[in-house]
Amino acid sequence: MPADEQGETTQQEKRPRSRLIVRLAAFLVAHSILVSVLCCIAGLISFLLLPVLAKNTYVSENALMPGSANSMFSSQDVQKANRFADDIINGGDAKASGIEIARFIHQHMVDVGAESYYHKFHPRANNFQPLHFFSSITNNLEMQDNCSSTSFGLNSVGIIRAPRGDGKEAIVLVTPYNSQKITKTEAFSLGMAFSVFSLLSQVTWLAKDIVWLAADSQYGEYAAVDSWLKDYYNPAFLSDTGNIGANACYEENNHHLDVIKVEGPKCNVYKRAGTMAAALVIKVMDKHEMEERDSVTIYAEASNGQMPNLDLINIVHYLAVHRQSLRVRIGSMSYFLKAAWLKFFGEMLQQIGIFSKHMNPKWKIDITSADYVDGTATLASSVYYQALGVPTGSHGAFRDYQVDAITLEFSPRSSLNNENVRYSFLLRGGRLIEGVIRSVNNLLEKFHQSFFLYLLTAPHKFVSVGVYMIPFALLIAPLPIVAAALFSDNGNSDAKEIISGSWKWLRAAKVVFMIHLWAIIVSLLPYLLFQLPLSTAIKLTSVWAALAICTLQMVYLILGTCSYHCGWKLLKSVMIAAASIGLSLMSIINFSTAQIGAMLIVPMCLLVQPVRKETQAGIVLKVLSVTCNLALALVGFPPVALSIMKGMFEDSGSVGISAFWEWTQILWTWNSATYLYLLWIHLPCWVLCLHIFLYPCTRRSSKA
Amino acid sequence: MAGIRGYWILAAAAIAFRFLLFVCFPKDLHLGSRPEVATPLTSLRRLAEGYWLKQASMSPYSGSMYHGSPLLLSLLGPLTKRVEGRPPHFYCSLVFVIVDFVAAILIRATGKKLMFSRYKSLQVLDLLKPVDASGVVDSGDFASLVYLWNPLSIVTCMGSSTSPIDNLVVIMAIYGACSRISSLAAFGWVFATHLSLYPAILIVPIILLLGYGLDAPPSKLFLLKNSSAVSFGASSENKVKSGASRPTGNSIQNFSWTRVLHFMLWSFVWMCYVLFLCSISLKELGGLSEMFKKTYGFILTVEDLSPNIGVLWYFFAEVFVFFRNFFLIVFHVNILFMILPLAIRLKHRPCFLAFVYIAISSMLKSYPSVGDSALYLGLLALFSNELADMQFSFFLFCGYIGVSLLSPVMHNLWIWRGTGNANFYFATGLAYACLQSVLVVESVSSMLKHDRTLTKMVEA
């Protein structure tokens, strides 16, 4: 077959006609500047239009049937919750001992007829595992290393076996509390969970086991839940010869638990209950200012921008709004709520909407300015927390095991000290939790009907992957086109290059490859830094930067003159190709990071030009391009970009070197892919842009 | 013609890098469980399972775990045993590193032979100066370095799969044919066919290589040159030159049947030998008929539909059962269809023909892995001088990098995160197949273009 095509290509040289796709590509490449400007602007505008394009959510899975049954949660249960919380607060004051609370919870669990046990865990040291998001198998051996340490946390776990189930599925309730210093709100969240738990122990309709995990959060909520899940999914086989350490650990476990003087037998034997269908993390927040209604805030972002199935959020929203008349909130950025330019843009959209309605009543772009600003602020927070790649709560631990989980944070309409407020608050919260559990209990399969890839612009509005990919695709579409244009342009102009044929780009590729290799080394440096006896963040950062610059110098030494003899156009084209591969890869791993990164990188990559390049254009254009390059290079520098982001998105963000170090530390201790993106794609791209900016155009500079 | 400076240093560095990888990260990489690296045919884990079954005097093929050759079981099986204090598959990895090194050396030797023949034929055609003015790369050194430093071949070597051995025997067959050692060519061909079936089609280029000799410009060029030399042959110096070139031109024309016959004889001997060894090793454990059913039958009927980087698994998971046999025939005949036209068009460049065959079969085979790409990319570099003007080289380079990074991410999204589905992963498989076909088409067309420019130069 290739032989046959060959016959055609001989004639192609005579005939100008070629295949349509080739002609189209040639057309795009020929008008690359116009196309890239148009695409970039269209990408940015359509990204700003996302709140307008958001659709209303709907419960997609029919089996869920939210709110179809009457709530059984009654005032008796409220009293139970109240009493439980009071007992804990009073008991906590008296003894102030973590084990006492665990014991108290355990006792109540046993009293309602549930199976119960203690789960002991050790706080895990922060490991540097950059490829964690990628590896599927979690090693259970490493966490048993620090068994000898005396610090440990104690979770108490209760399981209700479903009367109508086969014990193969479960729903998990999590209530984090600090065992060392329990607060009133934590006590109320425990009380709320307990009242629901005791109610569920009596109902007949339960088809999935209920697990209540009272997580000891003295080492962080996430650590407690994560270690429990790790043990849930990685059973330790005591018969294994290699696990002598594990045996010792268990003995020690028993020794510590002797302190509690447990009543029943087997209360530290780890028990399980089927695969998890969903998990709810319950928290209570106390408020002091008055509000109209009780409210519930939903946190859903797990590691690397993963979200739970949209149906889970849908049923919570549906039950909260339509059954319990709670106000549902999701996080939003206050900067955007106040921003004047956004308000202006919203007004404009509103006007356009009214105008388009005049033109054709079928066009529905009716969005009010306030709605638009709200939607944008919510969208910004959604994008920001997904982009960080750090889970917003302990529900993130579940997502690593493909369990859909969200955190529900209840807050009353005024202070919880008020008896009436407390009563109605507990009643509504309990009913909501019961309703959600009952709904999930109806599920026949895993959550799969609704979306996993979405951005929220309001609790009841979402942008699905098919929509939000369009702005991103428009934004990065210029990259391959410009790369191709530069590549072909170079081929025409510099015909007398040293290497013949089409393999000239190998030199430029070598430079780009070396810079990327350098970036990988830099990303691994923190691993070494922690072996050094350095304490302060500023010292660590400066050592890191110094080492990075040293290795960069070494890279330039290795490259020698090669780095300045490959032609800046080729270099730019290879760099752009690398950046576009990196961005499209990142858009699959974590879309939000790629979106924010693309907004920084794409203009920088497209506009960069050697400062010493001689152009026919006037001085004004030249100055403009140089200032543009400098400004973009400044904004693109990772620490600067981070501090701008922080200033914009986080309300109480401190800016400085130590803040930067803490930021990076958070990113890599949470094994966020954003860290890898920042150092493997963004940083080398920035360095290469500077390299091109300072590129000596030897032939022309000699003339000038 | 001078070799690449510091070849041995670079080669040693590649070997050291492999050692470093499997000493430093014995457990972290999990490459052996990646579908891109280890297929049901080449996975070392399956081989260990087969060896265990055989030790327990059961058929190694029972339970549909192992589908490789029984000879590999006897060779590698004892090495798969776990040794205390050593990373798993330590000795096997050692063997694979050595195998990779030997393969690279053989590629280098083949490249030297190709360079020499190119030099000779260009000299005969009086084209040495105009063609080589643009600079010559020592293709042997270059190709062997490409093979050693190719990330795909490093990953295959680390990934505890047996494809390095498959690649070695294929290279052995090509080397044997290039240096006209019939016995070695026959050995390589028989073993390659025995191990993975698809190299059977290499018999065409091997016979061409043994019959006509190494790659050269089309034979009509020599005739043209001779005739022009004769027509201008009044002057004495031209006469001398034509006298010198005539035997060369004739030797290219001649098809040496004796070598081909030797090759046939040797292949027969080796085939009998392989079957004999297999029957000994499978005595009372199922015999040869089960071996054929579980190895060749497994390859041809595409029984295992677990995802890989090819396109067949997805297709046969979707296809209706009553169409299955039809499509099996269609897909396999697809490879066979290519053989004849390509052989006619490229008969003057049999070594390049072998590369094209390997590339096509690794695109359409039932259980492809990145090890196959490592092989044909290494062979591609043998023709770096002829393909200097290849189009889309940068596009292909970016495409290979993009696909090889995208494929594991898509797999992760589908299998572990549960947010994607099979289509995501299959899309990268499709893109990969497209890239390979572009590579084949472009390389063949630029090779033919190279021949045409030579013709123009001779005519001018």
TrEMBL record, chain A:
InterPro entries membership: Gaa1
Keyword tags: Membrane, Transmembrane, Transmembrane helix
Source organism: Canna indica (Indian-shot)
A cellular-component GO term for this protein: GPI-anchor transamidase complex
Claim: ATP-binding is one of the keywords in the record: no
Transmembrane residue ranges: 20-50, 465-487, 508-530, 536-558, 570-589, 595-611, 623-645, 675-695
GO aspect biological process, one term: attachment of GPI anchor to protein
Record-given protein name: Glycosylphosphatidylinositol anchor attachment 1 protein
From TrEMBL, chain B:
GO biological process terms, semicolon-separated: attachment of GPI anchor to protein; GPI anchor biosynthetic process
Keywords on record: Endoplasmic reticulum, GPI-anchor biosynthesis, Membrane, Transmembrane, Transmembrane helix
Compartment annotation: Endoplasmic reticulum membrane
Pathway linked to the protein: Glycolipid biosynthesis; glycosylphosphatidylinositol-anchor biosynthesis
Membrane topology, from the record: Multi-pass membrane protein
GO CC, one annotated term: GPI-anchor transamidase complex
Residue ranges crossing the lipid bilayer per the database entry: 6-25, 90-109, 168-190, 197-214, 263-283, 295-316, 322-344, 351-370, 390-410, 422-441
Highest taxon listed in the record's lineage: Eukaryota
Location (main, coarse): endoplasmic reticulum
InterPro entries: PIG-U
Family of the protein in this entry: Belongs to the PIGU family.
PANTHER family recorded: GPI TRANSAMIDASE COMPONENT PIG-U, PHOSPHATIDYLINOSITOL GLYCAN ANCHOR BIOSYNTHESIS CLASS U PROTEIN
Identification of the protein by name: Phosphatidylinositol glycan anchor biosynthesis class U protein-like
Species of provenance: Canna indica
